[in-house]
Structure formats: structure tokens, C-alpha cells
Fold this protein.
Amino acid sequence: MPMTVDNIKLLVEWLGEDGAQVGLDKSTLTVAELRNLLKDMGKEVPSKARRRDIISEIIFGATKRIDAPIEELLAMNADMLLSYFEEKRPSRTELLKLLGELDFHPGSEAQKSLYKYAARQIAETGMFQRVAHSRKP
């Protein structure tokens, strides 16, 4: 039976992220099969990516909770973003990765209240983008 994205989600539900990662690493799945699974998730990794890196991406993709595109997030104000984050309950890792994509790197103080920090930074960036687009001739 081939491994599917739904199987990975179930594995994470049963074993947690760390357990699922170790389980996949110790499994008989080949690197090619893991790459195909990642491809089924709409993701790719560099051809030189290690087995563990591929597995990390698979686990991250299976547990990802923020499903709105960045453009949609940038269109929200801070209160809307905070409500969205509270509804979706993304992990710290997922929020930090999202902030990294926007080139934000919160310090230790900001990480204590990561939802608020992320909401404020994304909303401000979106506001700046909207102002910049409205001023173009």
C-alpha cells in the first residue's frame, strides 16, 4: 500500500511530529518514494536534499494549518490576522517560517507573543504594499 498524504496526517496524529519523523526515517520508503509523496503535496526540494530534509518537509506540509496565501494574509488588518491565527492555531515553527518568508526575524521578546507580533508585522507590510500600489501612475 503506497503512503499517502492522509496516511502521513494520521501518522502525525498518532505519533506526534517527532514520532512521525522518526518513523518515516526508519521506514522502508525509498528517497524516490518520499520525493513522490512530497510532490503529491505540491512541494519540491533540491535534488541534493537529504532523506531527513525531505521527511521534515513532508511532516511540515502535513501539519501546516495556515492555508491562506500570503497575498490574502497581507490584505488583512492586525485584528483579522490575530483572529485567523487563533482559529487556525499554527505552530510556532509554521509562524516563524511564514515570518521568515516575509524577511522578519523576531527577537526573543517578540516570540513570547508570536501571534500578536506576526499579525502586526504582516498587517503593516500589507498596508505598505497597498499604499505603494495606490500611488503608482
Q: What stands out?
A: The mean pLDDT is 90. The CA atoms of residues 34 and 54 lie 7 Å apart. The longest helix spans residues 5-26. The helical segments are 5-26, 31-40, 51-63, 70-74, 78-88, 92-101, 108-111, 114-134.
